[in-house]
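Protocol step 6 of 9: fold each sequence in the batch and record its structure tokens directly after the sequence line. For illustration, a two-sequence batch is reproduced in full.

Sequence one:
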Amino acid sequence: MARNTFFSFKGAAVAMLLSVGAMAPAHAALIGTYEGNDCAGVFGPNFPNCFTPVVADLTERSPIIIKFNFNDDGSFGEIEINPSFGSIDGGEFTFDFGGDGTGTGTWTYTPGAGDPAITAFVAKGGPDFNLYSTGGDYTDVEYSTPVNPSGSPAGLSHLSFYDTDGDLQLPEPGSLALLGLGLLGLAVARRRASR
């Protein structure tokens, strides 16, 4: 009986690991590199009147939520917040810079109640900027500014974040199904163990 209990727990543990692994965040996808500035340039005349274009997996024009300007040393400069997103104050974001300066790094967004989804973001450096789609990923999302003539990422000017419809991204149905199977496996294993 102990052997069956062991294998039941082992199977349930494997199911749980698979369900958690399947929910690992997707990486942001680089949509393209654009010449100029995103806000007050390619995406619109000025902040907050700028929207991403409908390109690649961005199926709607997305309004800007917030723009973090950075100094050359990676410290924060001005933070601009679109008044349409009253629940955002900037504290929902954290940033880590890569070893080669501010041209690479990661960001994390921890939304609160009523905070918008982030569908796209921009990493501006030098005369160009990179546009990324998040794919619903908000944890340790990697970014890189466009490469400068020396072959390394340009210093970070700003990161801008864009929303489509204000709804937070929900986990994929497959991820929820795997999580449910893992929980079901644990319940069955516990029931068998109690016999």
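Sequence two, same batch, same settings:
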Amino acid sequence: MFFYSKNAAGASTGSQTLFIPYVAVAVVVIVIAVVFYFSNVPDIKAKDDYHLDDKEQRGGPRQVAERSFSRPLVYVLLWLNAAVLILASGMILWVVLSTIGVSDSTMTRMLWIGGVGLLAASAAILAPVAKNISHHSMWSQPHFSAAVLAQFFYVAAQAGIFSFFINYITTETPAIPGSWNTGWPQPLAGSHEGRDLSH
């Protein structure tokens, strides 16, 4: 709509070159990924301050003050996180399937069967994970703290890019062909009759 739009006369009203910076970013990311793939980068191993990977220690187990927490609650929260991810993936898949013309009955059956199966699988996979969770605070792990900070800056950068894109579209809105009114609800289409929809 905003990239390759044409008015009633057939003249282009879109911004065909707007995709160039996005393609440039994609090429740079692919090049960096290829470089890292073929580079001999050593594995990053964090120091195990709490000896969580040691099954047996010299002189007996290390005595550390434990925090009280509910493992069933941890399991439920982990499972709910997995359920949200499955739901989001199902919504994306629903859009893709509806775009390529899959029937509603087939699509609904596929999504329900796949969703229930993934929920059951995640429930089985997360059971041992919740059982082996450490009682130590996650914020004491430098990788986790740094990852949270990196995610914060990533979301901030993403929101900034979206805001610039929205500002661009609102200031350089392409003209909308009058023939598109036929696909709109009747009151909305009638309210725009005779008006210039480009402003």
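Proceed to step 7 once all outputs are recorded. Observation for sequence two: Residues 56-64, 185-199 have pLDDT under 50 and may be disordered.
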